[in-house]
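call fold(seq) -> tokens
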Amino acid sequence: MKPSATPPKTATILASSLLLTGCDPMLSLQGSFWPAWIVCILAGLAASMLLMWQLVRLRLAPHLGPPLLVAPSLWALCTFSIWLLFYSR
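ret:
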């Protein structure tokens, strides 16, 4: 039987998972290290709540559509925008 030139699938997955663990940016908040995506999610939630409050205050919220679609979409937009603003290289 001829040995294969490519490594087994499990070895490839294990090696890639060990090499990719350092790719996530970490932030030090009060001495505790947090993944940057958690910080972006929380900042996106705060920003979307502020934007939604402004839309309600300006009486534009009823014209946007169903709130169950608008609010999570606004949260995702804010989260991804914050991520791109601070962590894009």
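The chain has a mean pLDDT of 82.
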